[in-house]
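[audit] Reproducing an earlier prediction to check determinism. Same input, same settings, fresh worker. If the tokens differ from the archived copy the diff job will pick it up downstream; this log only records the rerun itself.
[audit] input (678 residues):
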Amino acid sequence: MPPTILLLDDDTQFRASVTPALEAFGLRVLSATKGSIARALLEEDEPALLVVDGLLPDTNGIVWIEELRAEGYTTPVIFVSAFYRDLTTFKHLTHDLDVIKVFHKPVAVDRFAREVASAVAAPMSLTPAADRRVDDPDERILYPEESSEPGVDPEKARSSYVSLLPIAADNLTGAIRRVHAEAERTSVVAEALRQAHDLHGAADTHGLQEISEAAGRIEAELRQLQRSGRLDWSAMFESIDTVRAHAADAVGRVPGSQPAAAATPSVTPAASFFLHRPIPSDFVPTLLVLEDDPAMIAYLRSAFDELLVHLRPVSSVEEALKVAGRNAPTAALVGWPLQDRDALPRFIQLFRGIHDCSQTPVILLSVDDDPHTRALAAQLGIDIFLPHPVELVRLHHAVSTAFERALTPRPKIAVLRDPEVASAIKDAGIECMLFFSLDELLRELDVECPDVILLGSSVTAKQVPSIIRMSAWESDCSLLCFDDSPLAGEPQITEALGRVSGWLVPLHREAERIARLRRRQQRCSQTGLLARSSAVAALEAGLSFAQRHAHTYSIGFIQATGLDELDHVRSRRLRTHLGRVVNGRFRREDVRGRWDEDTFVVGFDGSSARAVVEVIRRLQDELESQRARAPEELSALRTAIGLASYPLDGDTTRSLVLKAHERLGTAVERGPDSLVWR
């Protein structure tokens, strides 16, 4: 008989929406609209799980659970409500009444059904009605020669188990994800170990050897973590990928499985799932939570359980700074007061000094809500003030607002020789830098990287746009001027603004457009590598031309190395210097472009890899001589180079790029100034 769920809720629409989803996972659903009806059903049946609403016609859901627990029932309970969203109620439900999950209406039906099915699959305690003595006269076996075990169809049992495999794989992935974030917590590791152990044994029982072996490897890695504190994350990622891929494949192959469970889910690579590398189609924002109240952290986990948000809870300033330094969060939420009253000012000051965190929105969750506290928060640079008591709607709104601010580009505008215009831009709340000379602008251009350069009224030399374009090689930047400027007709000018009261609007719009282009990290559809689309298109065109004219074609990746330990300003200058050397070393008809932040790509028509090697070595010799002349400025700049050629290494852009990228990785491993071409 399938596991039974007792659904206690008077909302007809809610019952009608979740019941088919629960039944799709092989669960039997009993419905009750009142607490009294549910009690009568409990006396007749033994449900594996109770789903209880907060407000009922004849009682309060919380009171009903309290009465149930007082009578000794230990049946697992999931609480669902549209009203009870405060921290106090959450703590009472989870700590005092042993509620295993709290959902807030409206719920995502598919996710809700998966969570319920997952809870049923976990080990459960029996209710008092089911906990009877074996020698009860009413329970004697009248015909001992017959088997007392119910008949079990192995194929049906396997089919039922396989249909729930994606849930088990998702749960195990989530548990390992929490280990990745909180490996120091023994309870988190123990829970992941339990899930891996259960999956290892159950999958083996049902003949799913690939999943069983992968779960066994995960179990071994977690035991190693418990013993030594070390874990091979690359092996862990590979094992998780195996579990999820084979689980999805097994569901797709089960004959006669339920439609809702049989759809093969898409499997995101585990490394991307954990490390949140920039994958445009599946971006998961990260919320750093600095809070020393465990109950508040548990409440936040529940509040964001339905949302694609990665929580990184920490309890000390030092730990928060360490986490932010490794992987800059999308936003931060700080509970105040912490045990240390001075922790907040210290955290804000140090947090803003971390690279990529200077503009990260910070939400302050404060127990005090008075003008003095709000004024102090504003003085510290807090972006959003959120007072207690916490309401779920306000919490979601605050965090979504913070994420929206974090993901909105903050364009920068440089103005050359026009103080009045610069002042007007700053008054409008737009970041603006004023330069009084072209030399000063050129010195800072590759460091500040403005999105737009507005050439002021006093700029008359027509070669200025060309000089700026040449200096800012491979950087996306718009050049603007006013329509009455002598430069308005120059081909290098992106747009000429009308000198009227509304000129700020197109200026800001253009700056935002360029800022979005810069922030967008594009992944090549052919290779899966992060790359600039313009560079990929240029390589495709170059290879196509070479194939039509029976030429050879070579692709090279040149990566700047040795810059990780440098500050942001100096490392950017060195990358720009390498870009200019690459730009000037090769022929104008060759492809020259930036592949990603640290890597440049070149394409050579009519040159074999052996011929290109000589050109690359001359480039390395040029860099070496420059380092000898300016050791203080260029000593840290080293290169790693990988080459591939057509037709020797393939006949498509994809094959050449992947081969060159693979050789680049080998060159990086070999050390500074390495070149790998075969």
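[audit] rerun output stored. Observation attached for the diff report: Residues 156-275 form a domain with the Four Helix Bundle (Hemerythrin (Met), subunit A) fold (CATH 1.20.120).
[audit] end
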